[in-house]
Specification:
Elements (H helix, E strand, L loop, with lengths): L6 H7 L2 E8 L1 E2 L11 E2 L6 H15 L7 E9 L7 H14 L1 E12 L6 H10 L3 E7 L3 H6 L6 H14 L2 E8 L6 H14 L3 E6 L7 H4 L7 H17 L2 E5 L2 E4 L10 H12 L14
Parallel strand pairs: 1-4, 2-3, 4-5, 5-6, 6-7, 7-8
Antiparallel strand pairs: 8-10, 9-10
Helix pairs in contact: 2-3, 3-4, 6-10, 7-9
Bound molecules: S-adenosylmethionine and iron/sulfur cluster.
């Protein structure tokens, strides 16, 4: 016989609670993306949105009474568009309403086109302890075909900044991209591995309904080639010590890793960013 219980009672049976917080704005909508995300043409209404989120959380409190928060994931959209002050306010209010475990994993998703040294440092100071970067590819042609707001050098710069500020970094990559070859797919994986992040996500590019790519499909590798890419990527990551624990997710074994970048290199990166130096060659395609 199935027993029905009120949600509030169900909530107390489970120990750890994983909180997902959606921050739905992006600089520009990517043509392949069907996430709930919107272009931030008039800026992000940070204060109003955070107030609405907290109201939502307050309304849900009776459902989760007694449960401790073991992880918080701020996904998007592009949460790194929010100011560090806004993220600080959000996390402070969450901590006021809920019991967050001292060692809870607190992740923020970031787009390399929004990477700044001070901002990453301030996210860290606000309590974010894991950064998830949407790299997609290190190949400038693929980044352009994907309509990304950053080029390959900004992608690398963002990875270095992330590794200098966070002990726990995830890199999102996609494969089976327009005109991509097996060599190209593996080159992206190898470059990601060479940075030594704790986690790599490798997503097969899918054509999702209601996206630009779905309506005007680009030329993609065929099914046999993309299946071969998937196998080759899994073998490459296994060989590099990444455990394949979920469909597209690969993690280094849970031992604490030293920052793979020397501190001198981190200092130089931060100085370069503070002085407003860009990795961009003047006249190149800019962020919109
Ligand atoms: C919310 S986004 C990550 C953060 C940020 N918005 C960005 O794109 O840089 C989550 C990830 O989903 C993956 N993704 C989005 N649309 C996809 C699609 N159609 N097929 C496969 N992966 C996709 C991308 O790798 C992306 O980085
Ligand atoms: S992939 Fe990321 S940056 Fe691009 S539209 Fe989707 S959520 Fe925004």
């Amino acid at each position: 016989m199935q027993q029905t219980q009120p949600y509030s009672a169900l909530g107390t049976q489970h120990s750890g609670l994983a909180l997902y917080i959606h921050l739905p704005w992006c600089v520009r909508k990517c043509p392949y993306c069907d996430f709930s995300s919107f272009e931030s043409r008039e800026g992000v209404p940070e204060q109003e949105y955070i107030a609405a989120l907290i109201k939502d959380l307050e309304a849900a409190l009776p459902l989760i009474w007694g449960r401790k928060v073991v992880s918080i994931f701020m996904g998007g959209g592009t949460p790194s568009l929010f100011s560090a002050r806004a993220i600080d306010t959000l996390l402070t209010q969450v901590r006021t309403l809920l019991s967050v475990e001292p060692h809870a994993e607190i992740t923020l998703e970031a787009n390399p086109g929004t990477a700044e040294a001070q901002k990453f440092a301030d996210f860290r100071a606000a309590g974010v302890n894991r950064l998830s970067l949407g790299i997609q590819s290190f190949n400038p042609r693929h980044l352009q075909a994907l309509g990304r707001i950053h080029d390959d050098r900004e992608a690398r710069f963002a990875v270095e900044l992330a590794l200098c500020n966070f002990d726990n970094v995830n890199l999102d990559l996609m494969y089976a991209l327009p005109e991509q070859t097996m060599e190209g797919a593996l080159a992206d994986i190898r470059e990601a591995v060479a940075f030594g992040p704790q986690h790599i996500s490798a997503y097969h590019l899918t054509l999702e309904p209601n996206t630009v790519f779905y309506n005007q499909p680009p030329s993609l590798p065929d099914d046999d080639m993309s299946a071969a890419m998937q196998e080759a990527i899994e073998a490459e990551l296994a060989g590099a010590g990444y455990e394949h624990y979920e469909t597209s997710a690969f993690a280094k074994k849970r031992s604490p890793l030293p920052n793979p970048l020397p501190s001198r290199q981190c200092e130089q990166l931060c100085c370069r960013s503070r002085r407003g130096h860009s990795l961009r060659v003047p006249g190149e395609r800019g962020q919109t």
